[in-house]
Design brief:
This protein is an all-alpha fold and 129 residues long. It is built from five helices and no strands. The chain has helices spanning 2-25, 30-43, 57-76, 84-104, 109-128. 33% of the residues are buried. Residues 1-28 form the signal peptide.
């Protein structure tokens, strides 16, 4: 039970990244996909140096979605969840999301919450491992 409690932040964060990836990679969740598409239209140009597609929104979404899926997998896998590369991916993508949302005039609470969860996952991984 204690190990499940210790893994809970990683599970929640992995789920957040998985849902965000699915919203970008397919239209399996049509409402979320459409909402993500609209937000990406506003913020894609702000991420141009990081994401190489500023005018092609579907390619931008697939690119970011693939990175989100990799991050979710690294968070879900016990041997990589407390690692520096996983923390780096979480902080990079949540930071990029918060920055582009702020530049676009959108709310950026969720990326900041996910960054905090990422740091918590890293610290718990270091303490437990």
């Amino acid at each position: 039970m204690l190990s499940l409690f210790a893994a809970l932040p990683a599970i929640v964060l992995s789920l957040h990244f998985t849902i965000a990836a699915v919203a970008r990679l397919s239209d399996a969740l049509p409402t979320l996909h459409a909402r993500t598409y609209r937000k990406t239209q506003l913020s894609a140009a702000k991420l141009y140096p990081i994401v190489p597609f500023k005018d092609d929104i579907p390619r931008h979404m697939r690119y970011v979605g693939a990175w989100y899926l990799l991050t979710a997998a690294m968070l879900a896998w016990p041997s990589t969840r407390g690692s520096l590369p996983t923390l780096g991916l979480v902080l990079f993508w949540t930071g990029a999301g918060a920055w582009s949302r702020a530049k676009s005039g959108l709310k950026f609470r969720l990326p900041l919450m996910n960054a905090s969860l990422g740091v918590l996952v890293f610290v718990m991984g270091r303490l437990n491992g």
